[in-house]
Design goal:
Layout: E1 5-11, H1 21-29, E2 30-38, H2 40-43, H3 50-69, E3 75-78, H4 82-93, E4 97-101, H5 106-121, E5 125-129, H6 151-159, H7 197-202, H8 204-209, H9 214-228, H10 248-252, H11 258-275, H12 280-303, H13 325-333, H14 339-351, H15 356-369, H16 374-384, H17 390-400, H18 416-423, H19 428-433, H20 453-459, H21 474-500, H22 548-553, H23 599-605, E6 607-609, E7 612-614, H24 618-623
Parallel strand pairs: 1-2, 1-4, 2-3, 4-5
Antiparallel strand pairs: 6-7
Helix pairs in contact: 9-11, 11-12, 12-17, 14-15, 16-17
Length: 651
């Protein structure tokens, strides 16, 4: 033992023994008090959902058992204030130091900064470590010292820098701090992570499918590298079955370190190169790129901490989102009338999990077809996903909604029918999760509204009765999306005129009330069970009125507010310009980001005004002839099918 310093080790989302820099430093320097604090009040609107809390409940005993075998049990505390709980622990054992590993989401950044200031003022030494990333966010900037706003530029810069992949050695023994017995610890059940018997019964399906814990994470990683990595690039076209790495929940809770993932993949790459296995190159490339996407999600949250509630691009502040609670409920319940979308939403509801490709499709449908605010969708994903990861959710929803410089074009509208034929050609996935369509022939499974009446009758399908008609016609959705974009640009111009008169125009998203979606409780574990209704957010229409002076200053086009629910859709689509490559996201929730122009050019058009970025988006750059978008290497989020287009309307 190098010293006798008494140290409190604060576990958060780093629930592992191996390659845990904070734990290794504390064990090396003296006696330790490992502690995990559950403080619901600190989570605010991002209180973890049922599935995420179930995972945490299984992982904590696993970690506690490992720590106890090393000589020091894990102290579990449920508290009203994290700061007060830490102070009690420090006072109980006479600790002089607090160590922890970094977190980068907006909630943790604020909390950690407050705790660091308070404890430092009391003379407590604070030391934090990088236990989550290959590169710290403050290490990567362009030549002008500005943060990158496009993934390709960011990742190219990262690849130019050396990577320290030597993991921190796991301690072989821990010496408990004197006075540990005076610290009041509760059981994992007393933390209240499963709030009701209904939640416990709903989690039975999760227990059969997943094995949380850091040792299980290492087994899962080794299994994937040995047997799944070689075919990784080919699995992006399959939405049914276990075709992904399945590592995202383990990474979110820090049960395996990204350094170890990177190290094992590189070792396997060298082995394949020596064996002459050339087909592995594409899979390695996509997998390493998806690691970069996870890094980039933390990078964005750290450098632009407002992105959980506001778009990165300033012009999106004027986008006329449609605050339609009924449509939002239909989307959540998997009752939109589009089979692939509905299957994805029902699987998500039932299991807390769905393939990354499906996540792209259902989120794109919400913001492009239904014009639902992307912040609603992001919050819903946070509430129901097993691997809910705020940074990755932010990156994904901002990308899909066109809120990033290199995100999906705001005008892009992908055809769910074509996507279904592409990613579920035999209809296996749809039949699994939509029993109403189980007897539909494959020819009609992704567009039952076009099927002859005799086919529907034989299949037992009555549209509008046991399966809904399409919630919106493809071409009506195209018209409404174009009108909304036109309105956005007119309001953007009007704002500039209003600024000359000293007026300030608020972000449309700021007028949309925040809400908490009730946690999902399943009373059936069958994948064929229909979803149970949920409450929807309350929002009054007056909260969404745009500034009257801005409206007067802009001869805005009318927005389609009444979409046709039962219109018969024509099977028309045009092939999107962006090619599709077969890649999936490593973190399962991150979305692929295509390339864009230099960071310096983007920053020259973006100005930070009180937490929101104001300035022209990629569409103004296109008009100026400066769109430098490369070919999209889509995997998780580029072209998911054919897009529906029409002649561009004049502003």
């Amino acid at each position: 033992m190098a010293g006798s310093e008494r140290t409190v080790v604060w576990f958060r989302r780093d629930l592992r023994i191996d390659d845990n820099p904070a734990l290794a430093a504390a064990a090396r320097d003296g006696v330790v008090l490992p502690v995990f604090i559950w403080c619901p009040a600190d989570e605010g609107q991002f209180y973890p959902g049922r599935c995420s809390r179930w995972w945490l409940k299984q992982s904590l005993p696993h970690l506690s058992q490992s720590l106890e075998s090393l000589g020091c049990p894990l102290v579990l505390i449920r508290a009203e204030s994290t700061l007060e709980a830490l102070l009690r622990c420090i006072d109980s054992v006479g600790a002089t130091r607090l160590v922890y590993n970094h977190l980068y989401d907006p909630v943790s950044l604020v909390r950690d900064d407050k705790i660091k200031k308070e404890l430092s003022a009391l003379g407590i030494s604070i030391q934090s470590f990088n236990g989550d990333l290959l590169y710290e966010p403050w290490e990567i900037y362009d030549d002008s010292g500005l943060a990158f706003t496009t993934f390709n530029m960011y990742w190219e810069k990262c690849m130019e820098l050396p990577i320290d992949i030597s993991p921190s050695l796991a301690p072989w023994k821990l010496v408990p701090a004197p006075g540990l017995e005076s610290v009041r610890s509760c059981s994992v059940d007393d933390l209240g992570l499963e709030s009701s018997k209904d939640e416990e019964s709903s989690n039975a399906l999760l227990r059969r499918a997943w094995s949380p814990g850091w040792r299980n994470a290492e087994k899962m990683l080794e299994e994937f590298v040995s047997h799944g990595l070689l075919e990784y690039s080919k699995h992006g076209m399959k939405v049914e079955g276990a075709t992904t790495s399945l590592l995202s929940p383990y990474l979110h809770f820090g049960e395996v370190s990204v350094r170890k993932v990177y190290q094992l993949v590189r070792m396997q790459q060298i082995k394949w190169e020596n064996e002459g296995t050339s087909e592995a190159e594409e899979s390695i490339h996509f997998f390493m790129r998806s690691i970069g996407l996870r890094e980039y999600s933390r990078y964005l949250c750290f450098n632009f901490p407002f992105t959980h509630e506001k778009s990165l691009l300033g012009n999106l502040k004027h986008y006329p989102w449609k605050v339609d609670e009924e449509r939002f409920k239909s989307w959540r319940q998997g009752m939109t009338g589009y089979p692939l979308v509905d299957a994805g939403m029902r699987e998500l509801w039932a299991t807390g999990w769905t393939h990354n490709r499906i996540r792209v499709i259902i989120s794109s449908f919400a913001v492009k077809f239904l014009l639902i605010p992307w912040t609603w969708g992001m919050k819903y994903f946070w509430d129901v996903l097993l691997d809910a990861d705020l940074e990755s959710d932010i990156l994904g929803w901002q990308y899909i909604s066109g809120s990033l410089p290199d995100g999906h074009e705001l005008s892009r509208l992908d055809n769910p029918e074509v996507q279904g034929q592409k990613y579920d050609p035999d209809g296996v996935y749809v039949r699994t999760w939509i029993p109403e369509l189980a007897r539909m022939p494959t020819e009609w499974i992704h567009h039952p509204w076009d099927a002859p009446s005799c086919i529907l009758e034989v299949a037992g399908v009555e549209l509008g009765f046991n399966y809904p008609k399409p919630i919106v016609d493809l071409h009506i959705a195209r018209e409404c999306l174009d009108d909304s974009i036109s309105t956005m640009w007119q309001l953007d111009t009007a704002e500039k005129l209003a600024e000359l008169d000293g007026e300030v125009v608020e972000d449309n998203l700021s007028n949309i009330k925040t809400f908490d979606i009730p946690k999902v409780v399943l009373r059936e574990t069958s994948p064929c069970a229909l979803p149970i209704d949920q409450r929807v957010p309350h929002a009054s229409s007056k909260d969404h009125n745009l500034k009257s002076k801005v409206l007067k200053a802009s001869n805005r086009s009318s927005i389609c507010v009444d979409m046709i629910r039962s219109s018969k859709m024509e099977a028309t689509s045009s092939v999107a310009n962006s090619p599709v490559s077969r890649k999936r996201s490593f973190c399962e929730t991150a979305f692929h980001v295509p390339s864009y122009s230099s960071s310096a050019e983007v920053h020259s058009h973006i100005q930070d005004h009180g937490g929101s970025l104001v300035g022209p988006s990629r569409y103004l750059l296109q008009e100026a002839g400066r769109n430098c978008v490369d070919e999209v290497e889509d995997s998780s989020t580029a072209d998911s099918g054919s897009s529906i287009s029409r002649q561009r309307k004049a502003a």
